[in-house]
Amino acid sequence: MDWLPVPAAVCAAALLLDYGLGEPRRWHPLVGFGRLASALEARLNSSPSPSPSPSPSPSPGVGRGLLAVLVLTAPLTGLAWLTVSLAPAWLALVLEVTGLWLALSLRGLKEHGLAVAEPLRAGELDAARSSVGRIVSRDTKALDETEVAAAATESMLENGADAVFASLFWYLLAGLPGVLLHRMINTLDAMWGYRTERFLTFGRVAARLDDAMNWFPARLTALTYAVLGRTRQALRCWRTQGPTWESPNAGPVMAAGAGALGVTLGGPAPYHGGLKQRPVLGVGPRASADSIAAALVLVERGAWVWVVLYAMGILIMTGGHG
User: Fold this and answer.
1) Rg of the Cα trace of the chain?
2) What is the mean predicted confidence (pLDDT) over 173-183?
3) Residues of the signal sequence (predicted)?
4) What is the percent of the chain with per-residue pLDDT over 90, rounded to a whole number?
């Protein structure tokens, strides 16, 4: 493997595995991790307080949430580091490729996106609504064609950052322990990071850690979308529209992505709790089945650009002896 730096080769192999096999249909490690997290949360968060404590001292729920995060992530991250450090080189390589493959979800993202785009092109709105309802949290029953397309396009751009680019970033920065820790924190945020009575305090640590771990990858993702699309427009949307979004990481990603694609996203959207007023992102026509497909192309090309640029950078720095 002298022709290619090992981390870049691992990324390429994991992407190819994901392309060929996709995610495991059964026995996915994250499913087992999620069940373990649910069981621990049920024990530690059995009596959530109805509101945040008005006192300046931290709420007990925050402490229990921190304990849960540490119990779930520290042993597995440490085990990954120890295993890769002590294993023979060939076994460490196999473990890293397998771990990164399981963390990535590029093919799964594509399958979900096409499951919305293809019915839309065929005029099957009910089928498209059903498919988009599996990947977004909003109420999809009354969405029209452009609203369904916008929801799916937003999901492709945002989940591309979380499930593809952030995994690549943390592997390249910290190896298997890094990508494993990120994926676990991201999963805990997806399970607990809600501003509800039950999770407002308990899920706060997971949500803040997820924001912190995704801050830099999200901005690299936004830059990637901009470079591969309408660059000036994407950068302008990122600068002016990204800060208006509620999420500090989703805002730059979706604003840059919308600008890169030349499509309008965001705006009011119906959720199960009622209509939510959201800022408009991007410029140009409203979303369509074509914008879903274009977002997927942006993510796929961007992932391979990252691998190539990393490999080139290492080869240049090492004089071709990476």
Assistant:
1) 20
2) 96
3) none
4) 82
Name, in order, each residue with C-beta under 8 angstroms of 168's C-beta and a sequence gap of 6 or more: 11, 100, 104, 303, 306, 307
- Burial (0-12, 13-18, 19+ Cβ within 10 Å), 26: exposed
Instruction: Kindly report, residue by residue over 210-223, the tens digit of the pLDDT.
Output: 999 999 999 999 99
pLDDT in tens, 112-144: 999 999 999 999 999 999 999 999 988 898 899
Each domain of the chain, given as residue ranges in start order, spans: 6-48+59-317
Segment 139-169, tens digit of pLDDT: 898 899 999 999 999 999 999 999 999 999 9
